Amino acid sequence: GKHTVNLDNKIADVSVKPFTLEMGIKFELHVTISGKKINVSEVPELSIPEDWVRDKLELNFYKSEQGGGGEVENVSYDKQSRTAVITFLRPG
Fold first, then answer.
1. Which sequence spans correspond to the domains of the chain?
2. Is residue 37 helix, strand or coil?
């Protein structure tokens, strides 16, 4: 709707319009799969803490419909080489 706002003794007529916030970061990973581990290379450099990158990788591969995931035992991430190893509890 429309609103009138008083800013420093000046009146401004404003209107409110909805907008969509872009959430998350999209990136591409290169993956090599074995029975219990997935080797991930070319992890993009992100301006977030390393433990957040590990959490994002774990969540991505925990989802069974994405990347053939399952319950994750460990995520080993090396920022310098931009690689990670995701280890699952069970082979599959």
1. 37-88
2. strand
CA distance 28 to 30: 7
B/e letters for 8-36, b = 16+ CB within 10 Å, e = fewer, are: eeeeeeeeeeeeeeeeeeeeeeeeeeeee
Q: Strand 72-78 to strand 83-88: parallel, antiparallel, or no bridges (unpaired)?
A: antiparallel
Please give the Cα distance from 37 to 39 (Å, whole number): 7
Q: Using 50, 70 and 90 to split pLDDT, how confident is the model at 78?
A: very high
37-59 pLDDT, tens digit per residue, is 888 888 888 888 888 889 888 88
| Other residues' Cβ atoms within 10 Å of the Cβ of residue 46 | 13
Give the C-alpha separation, 61 to 78, whole Å. 17
Please state, in angstroms and rounded to a whole number, the distance separating the CA atoms of residues 43 and 84: 8
